[in-house]
Amino acid sequence: MEIKYIKNQNPGKMPDEDSLGFGKYFTDHMFIMDYSTEKGWHDARIVPFENLSIHPACTALHYGSEIFEGLKAYRRADGEVQLFRPMENIRRMNNSAERLCLPEIPEDMAFEALTAFVRSEKDWTPHKKGTSLYLRPFMFGNDETLGVHAVHKATFVIIASPVGSYYKEGINPVKIMIEADDVRAVRGGTGYAKCGGNYAASNRAGKKAEEKGYAQVLWLDGVERKYIEEVGAMNVMFKIAGKIVTPMLSGSILPGVTRKSCIEVLKKAGYTVEERLLSVEELGNALKDGTLEEAWGCGTAAVVSPIGELCYKDVKYTINDGMIGTVTQKLYDTLTGIQWGEIEDTFGWTCIVK
Ligand code: PLP
Ligand code: COI
Question: Fewer CB atoms inside 10 A, N or C side of the chain?
Fold first, then answer.
């Protein structure tokens, strides 16, 4: 694939690495590629970061034809920059595209786009512990007409943002509210796809939770509002009576790359991992009888994030005395150790971008 390169003549400066936060700063360039049914994917280019110009009838603005991904480039101790399981994100993006009738991108083309872009923005990968360069590939339908149909024109973009921790709590336990009214997704809907609409539907409950002092919402299934699904921006896992329990991939939750990686790390360490239905009632009973030992969320932005308190219908439950549990800490150390190149990657998950 030919990728045109236009250098930014006014490059920016890396902000203070101690106060990066999440998604506030952007690098000097972005990758863009266009699609039309006649030409397929074409005009791949890395250009200075700037506003996009779109037609007011653009499909994404009216009918939500938009999907995205999230992955990170990590600065290794030896100075190299590496990606973590990028093919997983590329495959999931194509699954999301298929669900929303957006055009898929051949895997080798998407990988080339991603690595060429990371190579171009590499110097923006921060060095401080716990920081990384967050990569946000996204695609939107770009037809310039108001009819509702599968798109004929689309745009694929990758932007990058040097980030610190997603939650202000960092690795300290977060408080999560179980949402009893709104639902995020239903089976047969778009829950398993990473599309903007899922997040728009989440905002009302997220706002309510935030006003009550909770970091995010824990969703229940959309039909019976009985089974645990996932948190706003992460999958969720529990240690109950020595076993790890996580909601199974039913079609309405996002198949997280971090979730998959946690399961593989845990199984390798000898834990029993059950991917199954977990009702809020079972969780409540485990909280009451003391068998709920640990709870954590996992996601690219959130990494592994301990849950210290759950609230359901105004009743508050403290987990593990509000402290990070040993399995949660071990998972965090193992995953981040592999991601930052501090421990040997025996799984073959990382890929250095030279
Ligand atoms: N669930 C939701 C709703 C998310 O937004 C994310 C974040 O991407 C995850 C789960 C975790 O997925 P991953 O580990 O691939 O980042
Ligand atoms: C990620 O973890 O990459 C996400 O996409 C979460 C995001 C919604 C902030």
Answer: C
